[in-house]
Amino acid sequence: MRRFSWFNATSLTLGFAFLYLPMVILVIYSFNASKLVTVWAGFSTRWYVELFQDQEFLDAAWVTVRVAVFSSTIATVLGTMAASVLVRAGRFRGRTLFSGMIYAPLVMPEVITGLSLLLLFIGIGLDRGIFTIVLAHTTFSMCYVSVVVSSRLATFDRSLEEAALDLGCSPFQAFRLVTLPIIAPAVISGWLLAFTLSLDDLVIASFTTGPSATTLPIKIFSAVRLGVSPQINALSTIMIAIVAVGVITASLITKRAAVTQARDEQAAVRATG
Amino acid sequence: MSQTVFAPWENPEEKPLIEFRNVTKRFGSFTAIDDLSLDIYAREFFALLGPSGCGKTTMMRMLAGFENATEGQILLSGQNIGPIPPNRRAVNMMFQSYALFPHLSVWENIAFGLKRESKDKEAISARVEEMLRLTRLTKFAKRKPHQISGGQRQRVALARSLAKAPKLLLLDEPLGALDRKLREETQFELMDIQEKTGTTFVIVTHDQEEAMTVASRVAVMDEGKLIQVATPDVIYEAPNSVYVADFIGDVNLIEGRGTTEGERIRLDWAEGQPPIWATPRGPVDTDRALTFAIRPEKVSIAKDKPEDRRNLLEGEVIDIAYLGNISTYHVKIAGGQIIKAQTANTRRLANRDITWEDRVWLSFTETSGVLLEH
Fold it and tell me: Could you list the residue range(s) of the whole structural domain that residue A124 is in?
C-alpha cells in the first residue's frame, strides 16, 4: 500500500532540490535581461542572441561537436568489438583481467587519465590539438560503450548467430546481418552516451588540447575566471539541454529496445501453440 | 506386395552419406563422444535418441560444424568435413529454439540463406515461394516471427533450413516446444516433407515416441556411445540390451538364470516358481545371468488359469491405470515384483471383470519376450 506521507514528500523535494536547484537557477538567469548576473531585471533572450554572434564561442562549439562525433563513433566501434569479445569468447586465459582492464578507466580519476595521455602524446611527439582530444575522449568513452553493449550481448541468443553461419554467412556477415541489427539499440545508446560524455569533458580535454583547439567546456571555464557573464549562462543552458536530450534518448532507446527485444526473442523462442 | 523396402543399410554396395569414423569428442576432461562409428545413408530419416547429456546434440553440432572432433573423422559423401567451416557445408540445421531472426519477416528469414549464395533475385523469390507453399506459410510471409504462433514458427524454421536444398538436414529437438497434439501432427508433416524433398534428415530427440514415429532408423545413445542402431520395430521388439529395452517404451524385466533345453531357454527366476520359457535369438551359454524383457501389451491377464499357455505367472492386482483406450494392470507376483499387463479396452468400463486385489493369471507366449545378457 502506497500512501502520501509528509516525510516522503519532504525527502523527495530536498533530494531533488539539492540535485537540480543550481541548474534551475542557471537556466533562469540565462534569460535575465540584466548584465549583472545576480540581479533579476526581467525576461530576455538577448544573451542567446549575443552568444550566437560571438565567433570565439561558435568556434569552440564547432570544435566540441567535431570531437564528440569522432570520438564517440570510434569509441562505439572499439567498445562494441571489446564487448563482443568479452561476452563471446568464453573463458579464455586472463578473461577476468581483460574485462577488469576495460572497465578500470570508468573509475580512474580523470586527472590521472588526462595526465598520462598528455605524457604519452608528448613522449611520441604528437602535436596536441583536435586529434589528441579525440583520441583521449575515445579512450575513456569506449569503456562506457562496452558496458552498455556487453549487457545487451549477455542476453543475446547465441543460436541466432549459429543459424546465420549455418545458412552460409561468414562470421563477419553473421555479425553485420544478424547480431548488429538486433543489438543496434544498445549500440546507439552507447554512442549517445559517449557523445554526451565527450561534450562536457573539461579535465581530460584541457590536458590533451593544444592552442589550436579550444572546446566549449575549456572556453567556459576560462571565461568564468574573468567573471560570470550572462552569455555563459545561456551557453550552459544550451549544453544542459543537449546533454539531457542525449541521456534521455539513450535511456529511452535502451529501455524500449530491451522491452521489444525481450518480447520478440521470447516470442521467437517459445512456441505458444 | 511388390514394393521395395527402403533399407540401404542392408545393402553392402550402398555408399553411406555420412560416416563417423572412430570419432571422439572431449570437452576438457569430459568425454562427450567416445570412439563412435556410424554410417547414415542418403534419404534416411535417422534419429539420435538418448537422455540429455548422452552426446546426441554434440554429434549434431559436429555435423553442422559448430564443434570439431577431438579424434577420428566425419565424412560427408566421402569427404572429410572436419576442416570445413559451417558456412561452407552442404548441411543445414533447424535449431531447437528455431533461432528465427527477429528483425526479419518470415519471407526474409527463408530467403536469408539463399541470398548468401549470390543467386539472382527471381530464383530466390521462386524458391522462397516454393518453401512457403511446402510449409503452408504463404499467408504469413510478411509477418515477423513474434507475430505468428509456435507451430508456424516451427515451420518457418524448417522452411528456412530446407531452402538451400541441403544434402543433410539436422533437426535439434524440433518439436520440443510444441504441445502434444501439434507435435503429433507435425511429426507426420515432417515425414511428408522429408519424403517430398528427398533430403536426408538427422533428428536429435529425447522423446522415444517421436523417434519411433518419424525415423527409418534409430540410434539409442548413452554416455557418448551407441547402444543400438536399428529400425524402430527392431529397437522395440528386439532390444539388444536392458538399457535399450528400458529406455524405449514400457517393459517388464525379470532377472534369472538361463539354461538351454533343446530349442528353448529355461529361465529360473524365483525359488519354487515355474520357470519362464523363451526362444533365444542366438546361442546362449548355459547357466548365465539373463534378463527376460517383455512388453506389457504382450502379457495377457485373466481371472481363470489359461490351460494352453506355457508361461504363467500368478499374482494379485495392485493397481489399474485406466488410459481410455487401454488399461494397464500392475500385478504383484511371487517375490514382490510388479509386472505390468496391458489390455485394450474393447468393452465398456462397467463390464470389466478384473478389479483391485483380484487373484489373476498372467500369461505370454514363448516368443513374445526377449532374453538379454548382462
Answer: 55-225
